[in-house]
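Work Package 3 (structural annotation) set out to generate three-dimensional models for the target panel prioritized at the project kickoff. During this period the team completed the workflow that converts sequence records into discrete structure tokens, so that structures can be stored uniformly alongside our sequence database. As a representative example, we reproduce one entry of 474 residues exactly as it appears in the project archive.
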Amino acid sequence: MSRTITIEPVTRIEGHARITLQLGEDGRLEDARFHLTQFRGFEKFCEGRPYREMPALTARTCGICPVSHIIASNKACDHLLAVDIPPTGEKLRRVMNLAQIVQSHALSFFHLSSPDLLLGWDSDPATRNIFGVMRQNPELARDGIRLRQIGQTIIETLGGKKIHPTWVVPGGVSEPLSVEKRESMLRLLPEGLEIAKRTYAFYKTLVPKFKDEATHFGTQPTLFLSLVTPQGHLEHYDGVLRVKDAQGRILEDQVPPEEYGRLIGEAVEDFSYMKFPYYKPQGYPQGIYRVGPLARLNNVQACGTPYADVALAEFHMLQDSGPIVSSFHYHYARLVEIIYGLEMIERLLKDPAILDTRVRARARSNRYEGIGVAEAPRGTLMHHYRIDDDGLITWLNLVIATGHNNLAMNQSIREVAEAYVDGNAIEEGMLNRVEAVIRCYDPCLSCASHAFGQMPLAIELRDAAGRVVDRLTR
């Protein structure tokens, strides 16, 4: 008899989700789906609000990566103002964005994924968490907590608080950097870089133990999308869009972010509140692409900082040729980006111009449409606004990093379930691997729940005993 296995909630991710595995009479997989079960509606309740409120409003999408939304939203507002922000304002924004990358990647690797890598897929779920890591490898756990603290402290030093800072504003930042703050941040970086390099060296010793997972965790061919510099180097704040295929051929390059709509279409399905972006020239659902650290490193020839460039060269050696296709190696790419982030923050802070007091351009709105694109920890983040003559939002679209990966995540759980799940004898390690492939993408689901077109909606009325007495669907 056919049956459905439901994994709910999916654990050690940010947000709420469910995985369903449909098994046939022979116990083998017939279908697998990743469901985002929460709905937010930012695109609707932001309508009618002044565009200058967007950075603060849209940052509330998330408590994990609000800085990413603040950066993308303010870039969309810069576009509405039609101004170039002062160079020092841009550098300061870059520092905060990189600090966000460091702290978020640390959270993903140490807190969410390292329990699987250290304690084993079949270990007791009650101990397969950061506390289990503390018992198994106290130094690694301390390093993870400290590294995340360093990233958050830099955000707090610049913005006044770790979460939802308001220091980044349309046109730049609200106040210049003081000598004292610069020195306090610089003092953190040697320790952070030492932790990052130590963790990277440790992780390289673990990778050979997971050859089987690297073979089955999301290895189906996809495209890779990210920002790159005009020279093709790693970029998290600005730059141009690049799309590369699984064979390493560049399909799109030097695409201004404002033209993202030419590359990306968006679809919806009735089983999830997350949109399904796709690469338009290949259509839906064939146009599967990935974003985030794996895609960013696949798309570049160099990072541009010493240690990160060495690590990038080693990353490219994980495979004989071509882009690294296994989603298991998101973990590796994340560690490379932590090293890069810390090195680049140090470089930016040591630039004498970082203390320049000209940090903000002021103007009224000079366009009716603004688009802001930046790289969030999980991938390319796009904010797109339209306003009226009074500067009020008339239309809003958010294309979220996690959303870009939606097709790939669904494809990945199907691949992992086909490889490991046997419906005739379900074991803990089988289902944990299905969850673990989702953790490779480090999805931030509170960010990714957004409206487009006719979204699925179901309202259930239940009585005191929990029985459904009425149900309305759209």
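DSSP finds 16 helices and 16 strands in the chain.
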